[in-house]
Write a structure and sequence with these properties.
Radius of gyration: 46 Å
Helix content: 10-25%
Number of helices: 1
Structural class: mainly beta
CATH topology of one domain: Immunoglobulin-like
Largest sheet: 7 strands, antiparallel
Number of strands: 7
CATH architecture of one domain: Sandwich
Length: 173
């Protein structure tokens, strides 16, 4: 019987320890009270404001950034300077890569090493005008000089900036 009472005592102690380890896990609200809701202030509405003039663009979408902008669409090649009778002449090709004709004046200028001009000529197309159509254009110039400039270096100098002009339809026969 002693064993039985010892066993009952041990089981009752174990039962008491098992109850002592349990904790009530129900939440209890305590501490600082929750403040009442207030309307949230809205930020000022954003409105885009244009502060500068829009950038001018050409027909290809490039920004027109200076007077000589359209000069970049012109390239010159197959330039040949020669003397014939009592004159000096230039023949060549100018390619206009812009989608519209460009009008402006460019001179071929020959200078000495010390900067003195020794020959100058105005470049023109087959019709004698300064309008360069889109694509390849034959160009010509008569160079005013009193010395032989055929073997000298030259520069192409823009006299009047190039600007787009409306294309003129060719007359039909």
């Amino acid at each position: 019987m002693k064993r039985l009472s010892l066993m009952i005592l041990l089981l009752s102690a174990l039962f008491l320890f098992s109850l002592a380890g349990c904790e009530d896990a129900t939440p209890v609200l305590a501490g600082t009270p929750t403040p009442a809701a207030t309307p949230t202030p809205l930020p000022d509405p954003f409105s885009a404001e244009i502060t500068a003039a829009p950038v001018a663009t050409d027909a290809l979408g490039n920004a027109v950034d200076g007077d000589d902008h359209y000069w970049q669409y012109l390239s010159f090649g197959a330039l040949r300077v020669y003397e014939y009778d009592d004159g000096t002449f230039l023949d060549g090709i100018c390619v206009n890569a812009y989608p519209q004709p460009l009008d402006g004046e460019v001179n071929i200028v020959y200078s000495t090493a010390d900067g003195k001009i020794c020959g100058i000529g105005k470049i023109h197309n087959v019709l004698g005008t300064t309008v360069l159509q889109t694509g390849s254009n034959a160009i010509y110039a008569e160079i005013n000089t009193d010395i032989d400039v055929t073997s000298m270096d030259f520069a192409l100098v823009v006299k009047t900036v190039f600007v787009p002009v409306a294309a003129v339809a060719s007359p039909t026969p």
